[in-house]
Amino acid sequence: MRAKRYRDRTVVYLVAALAYVFVANTFGPLGANRSEIFPFFNWSLFTNATVAKRYDYAIYIEKLNNRPLETPTLIYQLKQYLKGVGVGINLRKATVMFATSILAKDSEKSRSVRQMIERTYLGGPEQLTYSVRLITYEPLERYRTGKVSWVTSLGTFEKGH
Amino acid sequence: MASALSQLRRLVRPNYAPPACQFRCLQRFHANSAWIVRFFYVASLLFSYQFINALSHRNPDQAYFLWPVKWLEIGNLKQLLVAVPIALFVINCATVFRPESRTFRALFALFALFAAAADNSFGAINHGWHIWFWISLILVFLPDRFAAADRGRRLTTLSIMVYVQASILLTYSMAGSQKLMAGIKSLIAGEAGNFSVTGFASLLADRMTQGRGTTVLGGFLVDHPGLGFPLFVFVILVQTLSFPVAFFPRLHQAWGLLLIGFHLGTGLLMDIYFPTHVLWLALFLVCSPFFVSRVQAERSRSRLVAE
Fold first, then answer.
1. Cross-chain CB nearest to A47 (options B127, B182, B196)
2. What ipTM was predicted for this assembly?
3. Which of A139, B56, B207, B234 is most enclosed, with most CB atoms within 10 A?
4. Among candidates A159, A138, A155, which has minimal Cα distance to A147?
5. Predicted TM-score (pTM) of this structure
């Protein structure tokens, strides 16, 4: 009797574990256009080591204090002007969240994420114009030469407006 | 060859308590488990305390609150953000004092969820707290007064410990199996991927251009892809095979150490650190309550013979 109870409990656990895997894989961040539901996660971290082209979202700065830059510049290259751009991965994650909310036309989410990005990462210059872009690159080439190409712009924004 | 096979068979035999020390081993497993649960809450106290520091320096106006703490957006409740980790800390003190109370453990799991969600509400979901929360949730199912010595409580406690171990290892299997599938997919498509020599170097290069810059060893392996390739394949195998290890106690220590080694590698190569995971691997696998060394088994056997 008792043995059966423990066996049943183990079956319940295994079903719960399978349910977790299902929920995490259904709502987890597989692909750039899906956002995860906390605290479920599919643990897809650096899953695909493709050598070919990769796609990502990034913020490009277009104008600094109302002066247009020669060419729109990737945010990481302007660390010296922007207080919040440190060395963490969080800015990239926030940019992906912002881009996916724009693509999903979720205006409430994109407004609050944008506000959070501006307050957290774009401190420093009074006026700033930036765009969110889909970029493409080959990882090894980007690492060695910094070469990144942008595919399309999802929108241009002015800080604070 | 035959000897090697029999050694391997002995290693992976799913034998929680060798026959020679069935009763004594169960007693020992239970006592170990009780200490491990207690230590889990003691270690959590450190994190609860750090949460107070971390969240008190956050500006609640910059948050995009995740669903477990969406209620903080009601009225002006978000100004009370720091109250969440303070409450967690107080409840955590209660669980350290009385880990046997299911009410305290349930409250702890709830506030661990709140605190982890609040910490991840600033534009990026990081994954250091996920396992911590899930462990705390599973521990809620321990019986009240789980350290008591009756057989029912003892066996329930042990089965919950197995579920905690399996849940920790499941996350690695999920990560590994997806890498394995992606690698096979690339092989079938005839593309360079996880199982090509430059695959891992490309992965490292990608990571290092995402804001962090060159890591301690990452640059070296990008320049020498042939060295990183076998390491990556080994990691994929170790991760993928993790879940069943929960049911083979003789492998707990070795697998715990392998996975801790993996986290050391991700730190040095990719600047990805999971200190909480290292702690849980050390606590639940390296210090596995079910591990019986050959020496211990021999000692129990000879004691039985002597009696």
1. B182
2. 0.81
3. A139
4. A138
5. 0.85
